[in-house]
Amino acid sequence: MKKITLIDGNSLLYRAYYATAAVGNLMTNKDGIPTNAIFGFANMLDRILKDEPDYLMVAFDAGKKTFRHELQKDYKGTRKETPDELIMQFDLVREYLDCRHIVHHEMEGYEGDDLIGTISRMAEEAGMEVAVITGDQDMLQLVSNHTTVYRTMKGVTQLEANVPATLKAKYDLEPDQIRDLKGLMGDASDNIPGIKGVGEKTALKLLHQYGTVENLSEHLDELKGKMGEKIRDGIQAGLDSKQIATIMRDVPIDFDLESLTRQSDDEAKLADFYRRYDMYSLLKKMEQPRTTSSEVSYQLVNQAPQLTKDFTLVVGVYDNNYHKSIVLGYAVYSDEACFYISYEDALKDKAFQEVLKNEAIHKNGYNIKREMIASRWNGIEIQGYDYDMQLASYILNPSLKDDLKVVSEFYDYHDLVYAEEIFGKGAKRHIPALADQAKYYLDVAMMIHRLKSDLISRLKQDEQYELYENIELPLTYILAKMEYNGVKVNVDTLKQQEKALSGRIALLEKEIYALAGTEFNIASPKQLGEILFEKLQLPNGKKTKTGYSTAAEVLEKLVGFHPIVQKILDYRTLTKLNSTYLVGLQEQVFLDGRIHTMYNQALTQTGRLSSTDPNLQNIPIRYEEGKKIRQAFVPEYDYILSYDYSQIELRVVASLANVHALIDAFNHDMDIHTKTASDIFHVPVTEVTKDMRRQAKAINFGIIYGMSDFGLAEQVGVSIAQAKDFINRYFATYPEIKEYMDRVIDFAKKNGYVSTMMNRRRYIPEINDKNFMRRELGKRLAMNSPIQGSAADLLKVAMIKVDRLMQEHHVQSKMILQVHDELVFDVKADELEIMKKIVKEGMESAYPMAVNLKAEGAIGKTWYDLK
Predict the structure, then answer these.
(1) Burial of 235 from C-beta contacts in 10 A (0-12 / 13-18 / 19+)
(2) Helix (H) or strand (E) holding 37
(3) Which NCBIfam families would you find in this protein's record (predicted)?
(4) 282: Cβ–Cβ under 8 A, 6 or more apart, which residues?
């Protein structure tokens, strides 16, 4: 039986555009022409063509009014305006289809859906099997025994097949009733009203009883209650909506089925198209057809074959916290081998373990820090990783979700399934059968292996390979050491603090109850709101559906009205400290007496490291009770040593903007905020008051984050006019900063991204958004990201330099923590002086800049005692 495939061109192109536009890095060619939608469309088409249809057509909307607008003037009236970046790609997709000799049609007065409806009917009558590809639910009305409607799910990467049995199972409806469903419940995406107040649940119930909207209209007197009234009032709207939702199947087309016969590509034109629009991965795929995962022969072995060449290695790490996770097995993929060995068998295979430890045999992986640490905790060492796809992808697109399926799809690899399809999700998560493990992990290994050269090429093309090779890759080994070594914690100290704090919390509770005149659940916003705004009659209580707002910013404005308010704020602070840190940290201490955090190296868009499970970068220091938590962090050896960059972001600004006055001030160790106050208030340094310095400090840091005059006014307690005057004086004093800010904003508008000193990019789609607030956000991100990102890069380079110096001097002391601009070490007494020298030298010589970097040290018997 002949096969015909009919593609909803508008639907696919829209989905391809939004699937990647939201990621942040909008693909363009070297001339700045947007290509993300056509790229996604082309990838989907390649997948469709694997089914080798005999006939093929892509249908588009003509883009003008259709007969449906005559029935309803505001049909599709609620849809957002199509982005210019997408409009530009409609002509591109038509050109692309012409290069592939794929027929495409559109017809004035009708939608693409109507052309598909008409052709599908003709094809069925001709005895063909029909496949319809769309993202729209409306098309389900075309389903029949000979027509399958495939709906795109998750962008354009996954297709859901719909046959009559599917609709029966999902809705208990026949295909033709889909238009009745739309008639009753409407469709917000097309502005089809339906009957007001009727949702899907009610619509299905009515259709199960009455079959069609027309039949329902003849039995209106049977309907009871308020819903009956709504349906009687809106039945005409339901009938009209059904008519609008009905796909035409008799459009007067001027072509026949034979004209849709699938023809061969014009390879020369197609290759030229790919080159013009920088779609080199598609060009490569066209020139060198790729073996799919289904065509690869996998081996499940209990003893690994001999390995002498480099290979891709995937470790089956089961749990998210890889410090606590079991390892299921090891997948190996290379030109000489493709096998999976279970953990139990790998543990007995000493020859395989020697290969894993052999640094001369290089390995490729994804999130190699996780792989190395999890395997080490389970007794098997891995060395020799020299490629990490996670880091390469992160540098290329820092906003891309760190998910193997998402990442592989973004780089044009479509043979991987979502992990949850194999392992389940949430309560249904489970360890799959060994054969399923092998298939999945080897598919991942093949993906890493196949995409390596493409990602390396992209890094080099974007001049980011050095960032990957010289900073991120060596850093991941340092972080792995830090995580595995952990931080020693005195649990008894945490318990003592917990006991003391619990006593304070209990006392606060009694005081709050006494002031309230009754006992209540202080942690309940509803009960607290009633006490404050009804019983105590405090002002400005705003009641919502769930009760009064008792958010921190609301309570802070009420502090002067009643003593209970401050006590509630204190209660919240102390209970948070107690549960999250004093109790929470005790639960995180391993049997070795240490906490082993996880550093996220591929998460933030600025390049900063973050820490989770637990977050050791976020231990509060605003309150003395929070600071004291650091007393529990103690050395394994003799001392805790810490070095912190001094005013790193301001030094970066001075260097990037080449602000001579600030460079000179920093290099002569002047107090930078006093210097700024002197400059903008036009007074000698000796006459700068504390208030002037405070205001200058707020401006210095506010400028970095693109603070407005309103924001500055609120922070320093002056009028908006005064704040505006401060900012104007600041830019007049340091015009290089204003010139720099304007320059990076212009660059971001033109190129869609900004860069750090070490060429880390942050993509900023907001900068050209039609919405004013999002554009302003884009400007702030453009100004701040190169500064924050450069500071993050500097600290990473410093960590690498310090680690190298520690190895060269053969010290036993360890780097144990990274907290924002601070590095923390566990130091032996006899190594203290050399460690001070090593750390200071490594941090202050991290990167050549016009401004001298300055690192300030402190030492103590605990993290709290640092002086």
Answers:
(1) buried
(2) helix 36-49
(3) pola, PRK05755.1
(4) 39, 42, 43, 46, 274, 412
Classify the C-alpha dihedral 671-675-676-677 as positive or negative. positive
Contact 529, 558 (CB under 8 A): no
Return all residues near 477 (Cβ < 8 A) that are at least 6 apart. 369
Please give the structure tokens belonging to residue 96: 């692309």
Give the pairing of strands 610-612 and 598-600. Answer: antiparallel
**Secondary structure element (H or E) that encloses residue 42, with its range:** helix 36-49
Other C-beta atoms lying within 10 Å of the C-beta of residue 834: 16
Q: What is the DSSP letter of 561?
A: G
Q: What is the pLDDT of residues 751-771, one digit of tens each?
A: 999 999 999 999 998 898 888
* Mean pLDDT in residue range 394-410: 92
Structure confidence at residue 223 (pLDDT):
86
HEC profile for 682-739? Answer: CCCHHHCCHHHHHHHHHHHHHHHCCCCHHHHHHHHCCCHHHHHHHHHHHHHHCHHHHH
> Which amino acid is located at 619 in the chain?
I
Task: Give the Cα separation of 231 and 226 in Å (integer).
Answer: 9
Contacts of 644 (CB under 8 A, 6+ apart): 821, 822, 823, 855, 856, 857, 858
Identify which has the larger pLDDT, 85 or 611: 611
**∠ Cα 858 861 863 (to 5°):** 60
Q: Report in angstroms the alpha-carbon separations of 283 from 39, 327, 413.
A: 11, 39, 14
* 371 touches 332 (CB < 8 A): no
> Secondary structure of the chain: what % helix, strand, coil (to 5)?
55, 15, 30
What is the b/e burial string over 713-740, where b = at least 16 CB atoms within 10 angstroms of the residue's CB?
bebbebeeeebbebbeebbebbebbbeb
Contact of 219 with 210, CB cutoff 8 Å: yes
Q: Is the pLDDT of residue 20 over 90?
A: no
- Convert the pLDDT of each residue in 560-573 to its tens digit: 999 999 999 999 99
Type of residue at 282: L
Q: Cα–Cα distance between 196 and 534 in angstroms, integer?
A: 38
SS3 of 485-544: HCEEECHHHHHHHHHHHHHHHHHHHHHHHHHHCCCCCCCCHHHHHHHHHHHCCCCCCCEE
> To the nearest whole number, what is the mean pLDDT of the chain?
92
Hey, how many other C-beta atoms are within 10 angstroms of the C-beta on 265?
14
The 10 Å CB-count burial string (b at 16+, else e) for 758-784 is: bebbbbbbbbbeeeeeeeebbbbbbbb
Specify the amino acid at residue 106: E
How many CB atoms lie under 10 A from the CB of residue 545? 4
SS3 of 762-819: the string is EECHHHHCCCHHHHHHHHHHHHHHHHHHHHHHHHHHHHHHHHHHHHHCCCCCEEEEEE
Round to whole Å and give the CA distance between 499 and 515: 25
What pLDDT, in 10s, does the model give residues 475-495? 999 999 999 999 999 999 999
Helix ranges, 246-316 (H): 267-276, 280-287
Q: Tell me which H or E stretch contains 761.
A: strand 761-763
User: pTM value?
Assistant: 0.76
Handedness of CA 605, 607, 612, 617 (dihedral sign): negative
Largest CA distance in the chain: 95
**Closest among 299, 313, 307, 317 to 352, alpha carbons compared:** 307
Instruction: Note whether 365 and 387 are within 8 A (CB).
Output: yes
User: What counts of helices (H) and strands (E) characterise the chain?
Assistant: 36, 24
The one-letter amino acid code at 273 reads: F
How many residues would you count in the chain? Answer: 867
